[in-house]
Amino acid sequence: MCFNKYLERLNRMQTLIKMKGTGCPSSFASKIGISRSVLMEHIREMKEMGGPIGYCKFRETYYYSQNCELNINGYKIV
User: CA-to-CA distance for 44 and 50, rounded, in angstroms?
Assistant: First the structure.
């Protein structure tokens, strides 16, 4: 995958997580056009970058437990 496309995908994920509008994992994956397994891999990567990502079963959405900015090799995802 092209690095720019990867960054765009992470940026879209970041936006949906900040809005608490991801839906369940299957819905979230569908919204960004990837499989559920790829979504879970990206979420794991975002957590490794320091993203405090949680999941609310009641609201069925991913969320940040605190404000954050993710940085990837000098690229800021806000």
Answer: 10
